């Protein structure tokens, strides 16, 4: 939502603005790479540098003033060893 305010309606989306979970990047990196509940995983669409840039933005904007600490190494460490292909049948 605008300014990172979150939303409640068809789904509940927590606010990014003033979110204490963003103080350290590990939380945001894991969610972006792997997804959670109704949020899809973006790890297959974004490279490590893009995820670092996104997390850094969330930590330093949207009413947040956290010290950015995401690195490409921390993103790579969260990625699964073998990316999951969403188009591949589970039981071929």
Automatic annotation (TrEMBL):
<protein>
    <submittedName>
        <fullName>Cytochrome C oxidase, cbb3-type, subunit III</fullName>
    </submittedName>
</protein>
<keyword id="KW-0408">Iron</keyword>
<keyword id="KW-0479">Metal-binding</keyword>
<dbReference type="GO" id="GO:0020037">
    <property type="term" value="F:heme binding"/>
</dbReference>
<feature type="region of interest" description="Disordered">
    <location>
        <begin position="71"/>
        <end position="92"/>
    </location>
</feature>
<keyword id="KW-0349">Heme</keyword>
<dbReference type="GO" id="GO:0046872">
    <property type="term" value="F:metal ion binding"/>
</dbReference>
<dbReference type="InterPro" id="IPR051459">
    <property type="entry name" value="Cytochrome_c-type_DH"/>
</dbReference>
<dbReference type="GO" id="GO:0009055">
    <property type="term" value="F:electron transfer activity"/>
</dbReference>
<feature type="domain" description="Cytochrome c">
    <location>
        <begin position="9"/>
        <end position="58"/>
    </location>
</feature>
<dbReference type="InterPro" id="IPR036909">
    <property type="entry name" value="Cyt_c-like_dom_sf"/>
</dbReference>
<dbReference type="Pfam" id="PF13442">
    <property type="entry name" value="Cytochrome_CBB3"/>
</dbReference>
<dbReference type="InterPro" id="IPR009056">
    <property type="entry name" value="Cyt_c-like_dom"/>
</dbReference>
């Amino acid at each position: 939502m605008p300014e990172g305010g979150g939303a409640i309606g068809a789904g509940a989306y927590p606010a990014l603005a003033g979110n204490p979970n963003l103080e350290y990047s590990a939380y945001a990196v894991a969610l972006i790479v792997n997804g959670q509940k109704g949020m899809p995983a973006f790890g297959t669409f974004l490279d490590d540098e893009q995820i670092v840039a996104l997390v850094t933005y969330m930590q330093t904007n949207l009413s947040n003033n956290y010290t950015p600490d995401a690195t490409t190494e921390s993103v790579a460490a969260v990625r699964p060893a073998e990316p999951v292909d969403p188009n591949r049948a589970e039981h071929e």
